[in-house]
Amino acid sequence: MKYTRGDSVVAFEKLWFLQKRHAARYASSPVESALNQKRTHPLHELAVKPIFTLLDETSTSLDYSFYQRIAQPENRENFVQRLVFADAQNYTNPTEFIQRNIYFFTPPSVEALTTTVPALSLHRIPSRYPNTVSCDTITSFFKMFMTINPDSWGGGTIKPYLQSLISSGVEYTLENVEGETGSGEEAAASHTELEKSWVKLMNQYLRWALVAGKPGPDSVLTMELLGYEETGRRLDAAAKVLKSLKGPE
Asked: Are 13 and 125 within one domain?
């Protein structure tokens, strides 16, 4: 912001910064429930209602296929609100917010997935461990993920299950090393490094499979918002893309 002799001048890029901070401040203010009391929360009028209105105005001409499957208007509005609260720190205006989070409204295309495939490798681990993970291995892990009971689908169930998959990944790496040596402290340090690398790999894979690698809410909240069925559909689609890129055996 600049001060002249009579007026203050704000650069447009500064306005976007202030808008994001404004939305983030509203998102952090107390609310009784993420789903109830939403119309009394200031962020509802600032962002949720305009986004909800724009989506319903344009969803007939644009492919918001996942959003369109949310049948009840109340459920659609609840979905938009939870997404806005999760990504409020990046809110500028309704159009930009929808584009930033486009894959929350429609699944990524095969082309989008194909051009954004992450490297299936473990970084910053001791050289004695294999640092690559096969397509079959990573997709088999996430097939197990969908054994969660759909009725209990939510962050409280997804998060610990994801942690168990990470532990399975660490065990998988250790099983593929012959003659593991080292003191107890060295083994513990190696285990920590492997765990960190598997956390990064699995979250990168999930972000790719679910939203083609676009930024946004963390993987657990993303899966909770998309729901059990849509998460499963997207993981299946990602597995097919990997299989097609792998080619015939």
From this structure: no
